[in-house]
Amino acid sequence: MNFSSHAHCGSRTSKENIPHSIKPEVSQVQRPKQRTVLGVLSENEQLMLSCFSLQGSQFSKHSSISDGSQLTFLGCPSSSSFDVYVEEACEVVLAASGQEVVSNSYYEDAETAALQNEGVRLLLELSSSSCQDVSMQSENDKYLMSEQVLCVSQYAQDIHRHLRESEVLRPMSGYLDKHPEITISMRVILVDWLVEVVEEYQLRSETLHLAVNYLDRFLSCVACVKRGKLQLVGTAALMIAAKYEEISPPELSEFVYTTDSTYTKKQLVRMEHVFLRVLAFKMAAPTINQFLQLFMSIQPLCANSENLAQYLAELSLLEIDPFLQYNQSTVAAAAYCLGIYTINRSLWPDSLHYFTGYTMGEIVPCLNELHKLYISAESRPQQAIREKYKSSK
Fold it and tell me: Positions of the region Disordered (predicted)?
């Protein structure tokens, strides 16, 4: 099995850098400058504007907001069809139709309009300062903030419950028995190669975790995959994961290039089609990374502990046995514990014990296996994950 393509990937670094985010564009209204999406308002324009007038006086009690992702707009619910955009000079609220809402069109009473204008002014000040703070953060801080944006306290329990219910469906640990031509070492080489491709195209860690999840689930459902087709299966898994997770996934030709043109575009598209049918188009899957990010939003770690926990989580992707025997949440908890103990000599915090229901005794067996893998990582021939986390980022 030849994964020589990663040797050529280095020459393509300048060819395409995948952006981490794309600012929203609004085509219906002409604007001199790019606007920044700050949040969302619900219901209709009239209710939205009435929220401004009713809650505007409360801003004086809350003169600063520490986290832009936690910003609540005047007590209004967060799910909506309205986007709030802020420029240096004014604020424009867009209705679902794309028309700008004039602030005084729904107000006949001058006093109410004055209160509304005061609320808008205060909102503009708070929002502008929040945007300034975000713009001064490092790229790593922006990434961490984007990872934690869905881990807000009011939804954390619901998110965790849904992930725990979904993780019951996982690949079988002994699925390679159905594939006589594929060995454990071949899968390790494949995952190591996927790590290099993810790094080359600057894809997210979640994309890697999803790709390995798709790979294992696919191989669990089929039998007798040929040795020469294993890289094609892995490439299709990564391509689907990138389409699911990334804002701007690499083009089909880029995935063909990563295989050193071992496979054609037609072969890759056919494999993608087979992949989706075998997995019944069930692409939403809980991963170790999702649980780990949720845990770290409940009980934050220092930067070193966090990076070590993420490194351990990716190391676990290399091995089928024993990590497929554990739930994804258990492996995430073990990575969290080993990371925080190695750096700070702390153990599983009470906050996460109450949040997850996991005791230290339930985590220890998986933690011991993860520690063995951690100790042996340096002596392994596959070093893509170690090289990734040795970088300054």
Answer: 1-29
State whether residue 199 is helix, strand or coil.
helix
**Fold category of 140-150+287-390 in CATH:** Cyclin A; domain 1 (1.10.472)
Q: CB burial class (10 A; 0-12, 13-18, 19+) of residue 201?
A: buried
Superfamily of domain 169-278, CATH level 4 = Cyclin-like (1.10.472.10)
Beta bridge partner(s), residue 40: 83
Rounded Cα gap, residues 363 and 274, in angstroms? 37
pLDDT tens for each residue of 161-215? 999 998 987 888 889 999 999 999 999 999 999 999 999 999 999 999 999 999 9
The pTM is what?
Answer: 0.63
Query: Which are the contacts of 157, defined by CB distance < 8 A and separation ≥ 6?
Result: 355
Query: Is the Cβ–Cβ distance between 293 and 300 less than 8 Å?
Result: no
Q: Which residue has the tokens 């520490």?
A: 66
Every domain of the chain and the residues it spans = 36-136, 140-150+287-390, 169-278
Say how many C-beta atoms besides its own lie within 10 A of residue 289's C-beta.
24
Q: β-strands 91-94, 82-86: how paired?
A: antiparallel
